[in-house]
Design brief:
The protein is mainly beta and about 100 residues long. The protein is built from 1 helix and 9 strands. It holds the Pfam family Cpn10. Belongs to the GroES chaperonin family.
Length: about 100
């Protein structure tokens, strides 16, 4: 991780992910034509915030951690460029799923 990226810490329940890529194959290896597939994006978590605050002012921890693979919606997130690389910031509840390895 680069020095500038180490200093970028998301706030609250925000999650920073590496540039997402569209999934074009099924688990069985079948390639789905772009027109026929709904865009589901996969990304790797690069940084997470401490979590949202509850009514008592305490942080509710984020359920993903750095290095996790996640599925993202086709639209949404905030694009962030750091040292010529693209990243995206999402709220934790905008993430669709966490992929187990």
């Amino acid at each position: 991780m680069s020095g500038a990226l180490k200093r970028l810490i998301p706030l609250f329940d925000r999650v920073l992910v590496e540039k997402a890529e569209a999934i074009t194959k099924t688990r069985g290896g079948i390639v789905i034509p772009e027109k026929a597939q709904q865009k589901v994006l996969q990304a790797t978590v690069v940084a997470v915030g401490p979590g949202a605050r509850n009514n008592q002012g305490q942080h509710t921890p984020v359920t993903v951690k750095v290095g996790d693979k996640v599925l993202l919606p086709e639209y949404g997130g905030t694009k962030v460029e750091v040292e010529d690389k693209e990243y995206f910031l999402f709220k934790e509840n905008d993430l669709l799923a966490k992929l187990e390895s």
